[in-house]
Design a protein that fits this description.
Layout: H1 27-35, H2 41-53, E1 78-81, H3 90-93, H4 101-112, E2 133-136, H5 150-167, E3 173-177, H6 179-192, E4 208-211, E5 220-225, H7 230-235, H8 240-254
Parallel strand pairs: 1-2, 1-3, 3-5
Antiparallel strand pairs: 4-5
């Protein structure tokens, strides 16, 4: 039996490039457009090759093999920004940080602080719900060696800008996992309506920066956290306690519900 439980996007259209000029009317519409993007030939070839050849442990799965949209409620107060989907994680399941060890660490921590309904995420139909938090990334396709190019990062940025604009009525804080995501997200915050200080704030675990709104709206509280990569979690550079602490701090700044 195929355990995939892939996202249900009936009649999903392919689009050759991401659009920075025509905003999507809703997050659900944006998610559909992201999932149909074919703007970066190297990433398209890689994600589809991985979906064809698979990994032996997942031979009975139907891989998603498309760009992975964000995951979480449209009225989220906290946004978590990673790097890109994993080849046999999000590229397989169709959900951010699902089905790999980085996701195992992240979702367990989200559950521990009260931001997720369960501590594990295995596929898109597993019943997981996020509370007051949405998860996305600056690059939506799985890249070879987990390393998008600067051009691929920049090509994908309009999707993040649109996502931030759609979340502006409710989002009050953003937690960025890793230096790549931090550098990729700062220009998107500026385009979406917040002022990024100059010189740009440097990434560090535990960094907190307030980004004033350019239109008199609500400020955004920006937090940095080491990425939940296996290298960081296996070596103890990022421990579960460190992750829970920064998640709880960011959620409290956002006004998202947490478990004490």
């Amino acid at each position: 039996m195929d355990p995939s439980g892939l996202p249900d996007f009936h009649g999903l259209p392919d689009s050759p490039v991401p659009s920075g000029a025509h905003d999507s009317p809703s997050l659900s519409a944006l998610d559909r457009r992201i999932a149909g993007c074919r703007a970066c030939p190297r990433l398209v070839d890689w994600r589809e090759e991985v979906a064809r050849t698979k990994r032996a442990a997942f031979a009975d799965w139907t891989y998603w093999g498309r760009p992975v949209p964000g995951f979480g409620p449209p009225d989220a107060r906290l946004l978590i920004i990673g790097l890109a989907p994993a080849a046999h994680g999000g590229n397989r399941t169709g959900r951010m940080f699902t089905g790999d060890r980085s996701g195992d660490v992240l979702y367990e921590a989200l559950y521990d602080v009260g931001l997720a309904s369960q501590p594990t995420s295995t596929h898109s139909g597993d019943g997981l719900e996020l509370h007051g938090v949405r998860i996305t990334s600056p690059v939506h396709c799985a890249p070879p060696a987990n390393k998008p190019t600067p051009a691929e990062r920049d090509t994908c940025r309009p999707w993040l800008i649109q996502e931030l604009r759609l979340l502006r009525p409710t989002v009050r804080a953003a937690l960025v996992l890793g230096a790549f995501g931090w550098q990729a997200a700062l220009p998107a915050f500026a385009e979406a309506g917040w002022t990024v200080p100059r010189p740009r704030p440097a990434f560090a675990h535990g960094t907190r920066v307030t980004l004033p709104a350019t239109d008199g709206g609500d400020d955004l509280h920006l937090f940095g956290c080491f990425h939940v990569s296996q290298r960081n979690t296996f070596t103890g550079k990022l421990t579960p306690a460190m992750l829970r602490e920064v998640l709880r701090t960011a959620a409290e700044a956002a006004g998202a519900p947490t478990r004490k």
